[in-house]
Amino acid sequence: MKKLLTQVPSGQPKEQTQLLFLGCSHFGQEGMYKGNPAADLFSADKQKEIAAVNASLARFKPDVILIEREPEEQAQVDSLYNAYRSGKLAFTDLSYGRAEQYQFGFALAKELNHQRVFGTDYYESVSNRMLTSGAA
Fold it and tell me: Which of 32, 46, 81, 95 sees the fewest Cβ atoms within 10 Å?
């Protein structure tokens, strides 16, 4: 984590730090849209809705955008974001391109001309049985 924090842009400290969290479903999962074209995030109507959410988020003017990816995956995040930012990659090119990481994280970062998007997640293997019964 310290390594990640050293990569975050710094400047004059502000008196107060504001955080904005966006929570949503995992939009990249087929169950969200398969068999229901109206729910497909690649549809024109859904893209308009996503653009409206991103416009609202842009008014917050975030300095840093964090997405649900482990810091160890940062090289892949950088590669994908740079390709997207330069126009060499479209979300429709990705099998998981409907995912919120791209639709909100990458799109907002590009709109705000951010140089990077940062992965900040930690995967802990927990079985569903453990969640319901306490047994692994």
Answer: 95
Residue 14 to residue 77: CA distance in whole angstroms: 28
Give yes or no for residue 1 having a pLDDT over 60.
no
The sign one gets for the Cα dihedral 6, 10, 13, 16 is negative
pTM for the model:
0.75
Nearest to 64, CA basis, from 27, 125, 18, 15: 18
Question: How many Cβ atoms sit within 10 Å of the Cβ of residue 98?
Answer: 24
List pLDDT tens digits, range 79-104: 999 999 999 999 999 988 999 999 99
Which residues lie closer than 8 Å to 99 by C-beta, 6 or more apart? 26, 27, 28
Q: What is the DSSP code (8-state) at residue 43?
A: S
| Predicted confidence band of residue 31 (pLDDT cuts 50, 70, 90) | low
- pLDDT at position 22 over 90: no
CA–CA dist 8, 118 (Å, integer): 8
CB atoms within 10 A of CB 33: 18
- Backbone φ, ψ for residue 68 (5° rounding): -80, 75
